[in-house]
Amino acid sequence: MTTSPALPLPRTLLNPAPEYARWRAEEPAQPLRRVTLPDGSIPWLVTRHEDARAVLADPRFSADASRPGFPGRRKYTQLPRPGLFHLMDPPDHTRLRRMLIPEFSFRRMEALRGRLQRICDGLIDAMVGAAPAGGVAEADLVAAYALPLPTLAICELLGVPDQDRAFYLAKYEVVIDLTAAPDEVTAARAAVYANLRALLSRRVHEPADDLVSRLATDRIATGEVTLDEATGMVSLLLAAGHETTANLIALSVAALLRHPAQLAALHADADGTAWPDAVEELLRHLTEVRPGLCRIATEDVQVAGVLVRAGEGVVVAVHAANRDPAAFPARPPEDADDLDVTRDAGRHLAFGHGPHQCIGQSLARAELETALPTLFRRLPGLRATVPPEGLALSTSAIHGVRTLPVTW
Hints:
Elements: H1 19-25, E1 32-34, E2 44-46, H2 49-57, E3 61-62, H3 92-100, H4 106-129, E4 138-140, H5 141-146, H6 148-158, H7 165-175, H8 182-205, H9 211-220, H10 227-258, H11 260-268, H12 275-285, E5 293-297, E6 301-303, E7 306-308, E8 313-316, H13 318-321, H14 361-378, E9 383-384, E10 405-407
Parallel strand pairs: 2-8
Antiparallel strand pairs: 1-2, 3-5, 4-10, 5-8, 6-7, 9-10
């Protein structure tokens, strides 16, 4: 291999870089290719849906970021902190993840929908109430709606005190920013851990009805998990629980506004049964993780006829795999690169696949299935006031927009 394109590739508001489609078109002659990541590693890139599912489900591909040669967005200056089970393999990954599964059960998330509805309505009431009498109604949808909803939801679920939420938002913005200096990231992460560790310690003796308290009283107090591990687990949930869904809400609004006929069809669906399928298609179409999900081979493995040797890294470009026409065939006039809210997109990889599939996916679906129909029902005249090319994109590992100015 003579060249190794650098990732992450620049993308537009609603679409991955066109190179992914071109590389896929060159397969199967070249099913995998080498790429270069910001940390200097040169892993293999997987872009096809079938290959992505195979790698993510194969236990011979490790998610353990402490392994030498593990590909990543930054060079690790220390081993990953305890409790970050998304960067672990069994048995530790299994042990820690199993503790949280009841907290994110389908039944518990369904019971949360009423609270999500009240949050959505309250945020829209505030947007409408802030409009000047007789003036133009406008707002930044990210700040007023897309970010507060998942932030409030995950903080309530975890039991994060109201007064600490702005602190965590500010710190996590630094932690996930790919352009932030290493010392800034280290300081921000340390501040988050110190606060969460103190919260868990308090909850051992002063429990409430929340996830943090149950970890403290049912797991830490019994020795099933250490305080450091619980701190890492809560940190991971808090980080993942607001940024991804917030970005997807904003991107989904932008995408639907760009497809008025499809939005009109959703409006016309009086009983709302079309929205769950629409959400799955939006998850597929707008998959946000960049450059992808990283793994490292623990032994020699054949992937699509390519030998990936033990110790070599792999990046699974799930956003590219979710545009693979072999998995999501054309439905004229749309093809795999187009948004089609009636498409059967259930096999998408927006939440990953295999043992590391996102534990909070039921929460994310509940948030999206509440936030989007509520917004367009309450504000049927909603429209963006800035063209897509005028929107500032995020610099984090999760694709999104910094602001989305709208009026109605």
